[in-house]
User: Fold these one by one.
Assistant:
Number 1:
Amino acid sequence: MPSIVYRGVGPRIAYERRIASLTQAELARAAALGLGTIRKIERGERGVSDAVLGAIADALDIDPARLLPDTERSDDRVHQSMPGLSSVLATYDAPEDGPCRSLTELRDAVSTAVALRLSAQYSRIARSVPGLLAELCRAASVAPAADRPGVARLLVDACRAADAVAFKHGAKDLSARLLDLMRWAGTHADDPIVDAAVAYVRTELHFGARTHAAGLRALERALDQAPRGDSVEALAARGALHMRAAVLAGRDANGAAAEVHLDDARALGDRVPEGVYQGTAFGPDSVRVHEVSVAVSLGDDHLGRALTLAREWKPPRDLPAERRSGFYIELGRAQLWSGRPDAAFESLKVARRIAPQHAREHRWVREDAATLRRLKRADAESLSNFAEWCHA
């Protein structure tokens, strides 16, 4: 994939460096760059490649999108990754020859991709995931029999990271093909917990098509087949399925089913510590986030429940950024529908601050920003800027 060179990022890098209380020399050391390079970038004398932008963002512990000027589209890398993903999908069962790292190295690379997905850094996933998927497909074709389930599990996780990029950026056909590859890999993983994770992710098809009742039935079938043990992993697998089923039931206006699945998710969440299990955040805090989501989906009298919960609780900082951002997006919609446009706009800005790429590509953010722009003429400039940022 050709390298992108971003220009005009110097002032933003300097601003974020000062916010982080770093000198130019300290930033250079943290990013493994030369001091002269940092000085030239901040003075605007040279552009920034994709790799350098990522290194500086890592050193500042922020999303790279925060360093890009308004004239640059942070999703350029995402769209450039699409042909590479399509090529992998066309040849996954007969991959072309190429390099293949050890299983340990591949496991580390997939762990990085999972972490990037949970922090909603889709443009960074796009940079590496086509090559990673190709490498995993090669590994799956040549691995000894004993290693194949492990490679298949890695392929499931990598497909999920790639799907986050495709689905969030509207490439629904590509997303569906990635989900098919994920299901294919899942059949070779020989692990019921992986099967549950695949069922969880595949409901994206039903969210996208708005076939919520069918998606709910699919998850209830997956729950019937989910592992029944009392291990933390098994409890979290069932709990995640119940969380997702509750949201699907809410979208289908099936309040009774939503409450049943939420109750089951709460009971299971109370038995495991909050954490990431097979790529999905689950625990008491994640269940609370989904309570807000269900209340917003049901609307009307249920909105008060979402607002009450938000007054009493906020998602902790150690919850994955994508999930925290989603909480504020859902809260913003509840506030907007309850006649509180100012509070709604503040919630959308918080969602943007936590995970810019997630908020920017979220359909509800665009819809609500457009509505706020119509309602709040007096604050037209800031709302217009926000609306333009998220393509409302």
Number 2:
Amino acid sequence: MNPQLLFWVPVALRLSLFLIAAAVVGYFFGPVAGLAAGLICLIVLIVVQLNYLFLLSGWLDHPESEKLPDGWGAWTDIFSRLYKLRRDDERNRADLSEWLARFRQAMSLLPDGVAIMDDVLFLEWCNPAAEKHLGLNNSRDKGMRVTNLIRNPDFIDYIILGRYDQPLTLSLRDRKLIVQIIPFENRRQILVTHDATESERIEMMRRDFIANASHELRTPLTVINGFLEIAQSQPDLDQSVRMSHLKLMIEQGERMQNLVEDMLTLTRLESIDYPVRAEHVNIHNLLEQILQEAKALSGGRHKISMLIDGPDIQGSNDELRSAFSNLVSNAVRYTPEGGSIEIAWKQTEAGVQFSVKDNGIGISAEHIARLTERFYRVDKSRSRETQGTGLGLAIVKHVLLRHDAGLTIESEPEKGSTFTVRFAAHRQTLA
């Protein structure tokens, strides 16, 4: 039915009733009384309508569905429809607020930065990742021009040229960022940032690994091939010289074999196809074997002591033996003759820990963070003298990761080093 009819029909009916009532009064009490009665009824009707208009005006100033007044007559239908419209609007607003909250929560969890700007690059909103990448603050910088907040020449040129089809690689705040602006709608732009620092570091490690592995393998191969060429070109070579060459070839072959074995060990430790085989590790027997190997390697040149005061643990006996042996053998190799090495297995409040302490040559602070990288050497010339492959501490790192353990290194040049391995409490066993 036409909404206008819904309003005017009840009004016409009420006017008709008032006129009939006035006519009845006039019939019984005279025309003056009837006219007065009709006028009073009309005034009452007008006052009622004005009252509802006043209530409606007040509600429009603060349109809350709970405060909508009750109606009478045609106003009942009007207020009912207004209530429905208001409830629908409140429901839509609640849905919109919920979706906006979800959007902001999702954006805040993204590892990539997202900043929304208008067509003249004034910041409207940004997520925490964008704040971290670009040095922005959403509450402080909202409404400010992004080019005034990010004062980088490459970024300014990128904005001026407007070639947004290609991302920009940017060095900012000691991070490598990939930045791209994506226009959307008519008056909005999205600034997206991706932190490529870790990817770049991994790529650099990969390049260094390939270069260092090639270099390490090339040296023994050069020696072996060189001596083979000499032996081939000089069949009557003196026996003592030939034996000397064969000895060097065997040493270089063993060095190359050790390098390949360590690389294969690292590959296996990093593979998810080879989980840790949990077994009871008899720490006393394991460390006694490592102690005897360390004394044999030292040849009486060092004072080596050991303290065992802690329980056994669960893990891979072979992997832990490899890790502990690497730490102890490094201490022997890098401690001058007459130095001391202390091996300890102790129970602590956080769990058991293994430590190797020496008073050897020590390590400068700038090298400590990179010691567990593949082929990283503090002193390349000394590493060759000790016949190390450069992969020992990398193997230690991955073994400990597989055993829920962590490695801390304390060292000072010319004073010595302490390597400490801390195991989680759930690894220890009383069996």
Number 3:
Amino acid sequence: MTDDDSDTLPPSEAFALFADETRVAIVEALAEQMTAEGNDGLSFADLRRAVGVRDAGQFNYHLSKLCDRFVVKRDGKYYPRYAVLRLVGAIHEGSFTERTEPRSETLDCECPNCGQSLTGVFEDGFVKMECDEHDMLFQTSVPPRAAADRSVSEIVAFANEETQHHIQKAIDGTCFICSGPLSVEKPHRTSSDQLVTELACDSCWLRMHLPVATSVIRHPAVVSYFHERGIDVRTVPVLSFDFVWDDLTEVVSEDPYRVRVTVGEEADAPTLTLDGDLNAVNVE
């Protein structure tokens, strides 16, 4: 196999290559060599020393299994490909190697439908916000490393900020799971008259159901509006914004498709006009 080989490796074969602790140790050692200034790489001897394998022949056998798909050799040194860095990151986030105990906590956050306090639940790698009357209102994944040493409230806060980043990336047309392209479903009204849409990845399993109004939370005009009122939008749970639930979002045109979102009732509250892909095309 060469650096120019573009053949796709079946996932089962790719994962099978790492079903050995020596190979995992090799990619971890190469990833640790990365620095802010760049990657100096490791010679065969230095890499073998870092992994702790005495038998050079055995070590070479395992290293050769990773070249050239995951490890590349240049000028006598070995370097990790990007896939290796992603793999090591996934290992260290704990999703494949750690299990967490379920826990729950009453949150300082109210159900937008009935005003009852919500319960936060962290279980099976997901954090949820639930209401006794209206079931689950929010759910997203949180890796064990991010949940470690955090209370459920702190996990919810972490998940909220991550969700805002995910929403923005999705609106920009990129899946935050696999980086594939996303398509946006035409918004529609729910039984509770909320305008929602679905963003679906063309490559992986992601299906993201989204109230249309949440797409503007990180827009500069909205961030500025709330900042002037002493509110950092990054710290506010997505479903706690009144304008997400209030009837302040309306379809104003079908051809071209346009939606107006007003983020408050004050005179200086910005109104954003979105197109069918949830891009802001006008701000008033």
